[in-house]
Amino acid sequence: MAPRKIIIDTDPGQDDAFAILFALGSPEDLEVVGITTVGGNVPLSLTTKNALKVVELAGRPDVPVFAGCPAPMVKKLMTAEYVHGETGLDGAELPEPATPVQDEHAVNWMVRTIMAAREGEITVCTLGPMTNLAMAMTMEPRIVPRIREVVLMGGGFFEGGNATPAAEFNIFVDPHAAHKVFHSGVPVTMAPIDCTYTAQMTPEWLGTLRATGSRAALEAANMAEFYCQYGDHKFPTRARPIHDACVTGYLLSPNIYEQRQCYVTVDISSSETIGMTVVDWWHVTGKEKNVNVLRRIEPAPFFDLMLDRISALP
Ligand code: BDR
Ligand code: CA
Questions:
Q1: What is the pLDDT of residue 187?
Q2: Rg of the chain, C-alpha, whole Å
Q3: 259 forms bridges with which residues in the sheet?
Q4: What element of type H or E holds 241?
Q5: Burial grade of 9 (CB within 10 A; 0-12, 13-18, 19 or more)
Q6: Residue 291: what are its φ and ψ, rounded to 5°?
Q7: What is the pLDDT of residues 277-287, one digit of tens each?
Q8: Helices (H) and strands (E) in the chain, counts
Q9: Is 291 helix (H, G, I), strand (E, B) or coil?
């Protein structure tokens, strides 16, 4: 079978970097057609530079990177240097990218690429605020039925939120974009923090990754060690969820995830709970189910696979 074609829309972010390396280390399964960046964990200029650094780290400067929207559709941008550091990829020592960003705007490229592809050929993976995809859908609604699936990291229900008591970061930053995508009619699979918290990256696993010896593995371990410093107030050990990598894991091995089709919406109007994903787990509303919600991951096969794929990179 030909590899599945994906667009990765991202705001790197160490966990975004893991998701990208995991995908680029899996060329027989996934073809990364391009990477689009968005303002999120850090401002757009940095997320774009970081995406370029990551493709170069993977030995794949041929994967084009397109800069997208610097700010959400309606709200002001909120960033997360408190988790990811000032650069967004603190912990890794990566050279300034030699590869330039593409001239075309990410939203224009996304529309052009999806329209030019066969119907159902392209999967869009969003690892940050969903601004670029929502803008693309607004600009050219005909892309919606052409997309095979949107697989996103975002939202939370049973675990509550990590940006506010109710909202997860990616959805909180641009709830209007998430609302647009969830209600567009496109098939959506969502990896909320309820799912990502069930696959925690341990210091032992990072030691094994480092010991594989490739430069990609080494720098991934370096950045992860920085990233794992945040969260001692929440987690009893230094094990941490590696959120965005759960999207790549799902694409490669969906059977290791518990999943349920649900009606999901996003609060875009109330002051306390804006950005909350409301998941009708028990189908009490009777509304049409629009999202495949991922719940639990089997951690062992997930981490085995990620180790295998990232350590295959140079
Ligand atoms: C999400 O927020 C960002 O900080 C991470 O990169 C991830 O996409 C987790 O809530
Ligand atoms: Ca992210």
A1: 98
A2: 18
A3: 294
A4: strand 240-241
A5: buried
A6: -140, 135
A7: 999 999 999 99
A8: 12, 11
A9: strand
Residue type, 60: R
According to DSSP, the residues that pair with 191 across neighbouring strands are 153
User: Which atom, in ligand 1's list, is nearest to the CA of 83?
Assistant: 4
Q: What confidence category does residue 247 fall into, taking pLDDT thresholds of 50, 70 and 90?
A: very high
- Of ligand 1's listed atoms, the one at least distance from the Cα of 244 is 8
CB distance 243 to ligand 1 below 6 Å: yes
Burial letters 90-106, b for 16+ CB under 10 A, else e: bbbebeebeeebbeebb
pLDDT tens-place string over residues 26-46: 999 999 999 999 999 999 999
Q: Which mutation among 157, 244, 248 tests ligand 1's pocket best, with the greatest number of atoms within 8 A of CB?
A: 244
Ligand 1 centroid to residue 11 C-alpha, Å: 9
| pLDDT tens figures, 250-277 | 999 999 999 999 999 999 999 999 999 9
Assess contact for 159 and 253: CB atoms under 8 A.
Answer: no
170 CB within 6 A, ligand 1:
yes
- Backbone conformation region of residue 160, classed left if phi is above 0, alpha if psi is from -120 to 50, else beta: left
* Residues in CB range of 247: below 8 A, 6 or more apart: 19, 125, 127, 151, 152, 153, 191
Nearby residues of 270 by Cβ (< 8 Å), 6 or more positions away? none
Closest CA to 151 of 251, 290, 276: 251
The whole-number pLDDT of residue 120 equals 98
CA of 216 to the centre of ligand 1 (A): 21
Does 80 contact ligand 1 (Cβ within 6 A)?
yes
Strand partners, 151: 125, 189
Answer whether the bond into residue 207 is a cis peptide, omega within 30°: no
Geometric angle at alpha carbon 4, from 151 and 128, rounded to 5°: 30
For residue 78, give the ligand nearest its CA: 1
Domains and CATH numbers, the chain: 4-311 (3.90.245.10)
